Amino acid sequence: MGSQIFDDEQIASFCLDKLGAKPDCIERPGGASRKTVLVEVNGQRMAVSKRNSIGRAKLEADILSKFGNTEAVPRLVLQSDRFVVQHFVAGQRLPEVLETSPETARNKQLVAAGKSLLFLQKTGQENGLIGQVPMIGARPNWHEDFASAPTRLAGQLGLEPAMFNRADIIDKIRPKAPSFVKWDSRPGNCLWTNDGGVVWFDWEHCGIGSTEDDLVWLLADEWAPISLSAEQSLLKNALENGTFSLDELTFRFRAKAILHTSIRLGLIFNHKGEGSWWNARHAMQLDHIGVTLPHVRRLCRRARLWALASPEFGDLSHFFDNVHEYAELLPNPS
Questions:
Q1: Considering Cα of 122, then 123, then 126, then 131, what sign does the dihedral take?
Q2: Does residue 84 contact residue 61 with C-beta atoms inside 8 Å?
């Protein structure tokens, strides 16, 4: 068990000071090392999150305040220093819902989650957030480093690096039509509410990117099932938020999704190390990375399909086959 980010005594003191009473109970649904806990104060359930900086906490609180009437984000209670307090929302994380639903329902759920992100992007634009939130990827050589993700993965695993047109991909994925984006829009940050709604939380990393970015985080995650129909539907919907043709937007999405997949695979192999594969259900319940062989298979299969779609991706399809074979041969000590 990881060390606690803030202990029960600190939480009780914070609640007494900011909410007027000590909590009746404290829950840690993501485990002791996570930055969010659930508390009940005077019969009201709330989520208390500790962010990395006051700036991040203020950014998140501002977004929750601006989006408060959309019902697509939790309602803000207060922000103080590095802490953000939100009203509790009842429901299940999207990965749990996707895991237990039939294929037709999964496709609809992915589309609903993606449409919610696109709606919030548009809402952010209408609220004048361009110029008020940080630019994502502003660091020099950020896009060059992003496009090197498959090469880094090859080095990490000791595999032959893939040959692909890195320079052309870098040029084609550079910012073109700035859009407000959530950024960290992985399925684990999405709640499927008890009445069938979609709520997105953890907004401290939002900023200015491109409209396809949120769809990349959603659809290229190991917890998202492979769904070409959901991808096509959402890309068509995303045209309303940008200035791209469908072909250009699709290329940008697939290129970034391949690079994002390489990063996810690197995280999975890093967490596995020389140990065993993780229990998928336990990882899902704690909203952890999917350090399981089925998740690696899913990521490699999906990235291979994306890589086959355009000559700029070179032999990346073969590279993901090699990553899959590498994973299958890894020891799995009990």
A1: negative
A2: yes
pLDDT band at 1 (very low <50, low <70, confident <90, very high): very low
The DSSP secondary structure of 168-226, one letter per residue, reads HHHHHHS--S-EEE-S---GGGEEEETTS-EEE---TT-EEE-THHHHHHHHTSTTSPP
CA 188 distance to own-chain centroid: 7
Q: Residues 6 or more apart from 15 whose CB is under 8 A from it?
A: 21, 22, 23, 39, 41, 48
pTM equals 0.95
Q: What is the pLDDT of residues 100-151, one digit of tens each?
A: 999 999 999 999 999 999 999 999 999 999 989 999 999 999 999 999 999 9
- Please count the other Cβ atoms lying within 10 Å of the Cβ belonging to residue 334: 3
User: Do residues 198 and 112 make contact, with C-beta atoms less than 8 angstroms apart?
Assistant: yes
Sorted by where each starts, the structural domains of the chain and their CATH numbers stand as 8-89 (3.30.200.20), 93-328 (3.90.1200.10)
